[in-house]
Amino acid sequence: MQNDVRYELYNVLFGKSQVRYGRIIQTIASYLKDSETASETLKSGKHFKSEETKNLEKFITLNNLWVREIDFSKYVSEGAEQKVYLKDSKYVLKLNDSIYYTSWKDYLYNLLLHNYF
Q1: What is the tens place of the pLDDT at every residue in 49-98?
Q2: Torsion angles phi and psi, residue 12, rounded to 5
Q3: Which residue has the higher pLDDT, 45 or 24?
Q4: Rounded CA gap, 110 and 13, in Å?
Q5: Residues with Cβ < 8 Å from 84, sequence gap 6 or more?
Q6: What is the 3-class SS of 96-115, one letter each residue?
Q7: DSSP states of 28-72 as a string?
Q8: 6 vs 108, which has greater pLDDT?
Q9: Do 76 and 85 touch, CB atoms closer than 8 A?
Q10: Closest CA relative to residue 27, chosen from 69, 67, 56, 66
Q11: Is 21 helix (H, G, I), strand (E, B) or coil?
């Protein structure tokens, strides 16, 4: 049973299992993981996250994934790490700064698990 859960989690995080809205999240997390070097993982959290942010922005730009149609006048609410805006009558947009995570990859893994369960 314990191994089943472990394999299930592994498959979710590394793109072997489908997750609602997960394919792009899995792809970006994999890109960030592949962009890491051994020395980067040993550096201080802020420096590592700064480098990771540059890689994330590069990936988003190369794949034309920037969300450009945020209407900031449709602000709804905010929490400690995100601001929420209405997109339309059915959807919202959440802008997250991942302050509770030492890396964007960890944030994306958390998002995958949240969407899976």
Answers
A1: 889 999 999 999 999 999 988 999 999 999 988 999 999 999 999 999 88
A2: -65, -50
A3: 24
A4: 9
A5: 75, 76, 77, 78, 92, 93, 94, 95
A6: ECCCCCCCHHHHHHHHHHHH
A7: HHHHHHHH--HHHHHS-HHHHHHHHHHHHHHHHHHTT-------G
A8: 108
A9: yes
A10: 56
A11: coil
Give the range of the structural domain holding residue 111, as residue numbers without chain letter: 2-67+102-116
Quick check: helix, strand or coil at residue 20?
Answer: coil
Task: For residue 85, tell me if it sits in a domain.
Answer: no
pLDDT attached to residue 8: 74
Tally of domains in the chain: 1
Q: Name the residue type at position 13.
A: L
Report which residue type is found at 5.
Answer: V
Name every residue whose Cβ is closer than 8 Å to that of residue 13 and which is 6 or more positions away in sequence.
Answer: 26, 29, 109, 112, 113
